[in-house]
């Protein structure tokens, strides 16, 4: 599946993603507010974080995403968000711990990861809109810290949600995400970038960490 070579609106695919994600979000709400009879503060806070994720996804798909979205991708994105919305909701249902400072820290980490992901994409989008930058590889802003800093942001906010559930089993979800990014998505993207930008990408790759700033 070649995700990066064609620019296209893909409106039907995008609305399909949003529609399916909306249904998944309603299912998460049912789990948190109707299945769980306790209706704890943790449930309300988790759903609020889900709404932030939902809003960011809307902005990403309809404002920042310029390339074609194949149907295969349109079907796999909702699967990933099922892991987030449904998976983290289920792990939260088996948690009886009251909200405390550790949870506040997880929420702050979630906000940091969300900011890194969305703001890095906005920075790149603004740069690419400039006619003088046409055909250039964006390596500025947050992308100076990692070649795929936007994916690092995803990894941070997903890890934060796992921590917020206060269930060690929930950590399997960010682990799955890391493996998918490191061994599938990033290699595909790097192949495309190397082919498109040549020497620009080679220099960028040699001087910049791949995913995690200052580490990897």
UniProtKB/TrEMBL annotation:
Keyword ATP-binding: no
Keywords on record: Membrane, Transmembrane, Transmembrane helix
Gene3D superfamilies tied to this protein: 1.20.120.1630
InterPro entries linked: UstE-like
An annotated GO cellular component: membrane
TM spans (from-to): 12-33, 45-65, 77-95, 101-120, 141-164, 170-193
Protein's recorded name: Putative membrane protein
Species per Swiss-Prot/TrEMBL record: Virgibacillus massiliensis
Lineage: Bacteria, Bacillati, Bacillota, Bacilli, Bacillales
């Amino acid at each position: 599946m070649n995700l990066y070579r064609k620019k296209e609106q893909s409106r039907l695919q995008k609305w399909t993603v949003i529609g399916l994600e909306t249904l998944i979000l309603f299912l998460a709400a049912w789990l948190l507010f109707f299945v769980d009879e306790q209706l704890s503060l943790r449930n309300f806070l988790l759903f609020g974080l889900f709404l932030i994720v939902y809003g960011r996804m809307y902005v990403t798909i309809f404002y920042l995403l310029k390339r074609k979205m194949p149907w295969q991708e349109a079907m796999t994105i909702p699967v990933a968000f099922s892991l987030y919305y449904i998976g983290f909701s289920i792990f939260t249902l088996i948690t009886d711990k009251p909200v405390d400072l550790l949870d506040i820290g997880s929420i702050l980490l979630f906000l940091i990861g969300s900011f890194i992901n969305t703001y890095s994409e906005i920075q790149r989008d603004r740069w690419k809109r400039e006619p003088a930058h046409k055909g250039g590889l964006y390596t500025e802003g947050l992308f100076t810290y990692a070649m795929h800093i936007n994916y690092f942001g995803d990894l941070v906010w997903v890890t934060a949600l796992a921590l917020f559930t206060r269930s060690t089993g929930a950590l399997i979800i960010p682990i799955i995400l890391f493996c998918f990014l490191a061994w599938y998505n990033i290699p595909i993207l790097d192949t495309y970038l190397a082919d498109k930008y040549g020497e620009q990408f080679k220099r960028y790759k040699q001087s910049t960490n791949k995913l995690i700033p200052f580490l990897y």
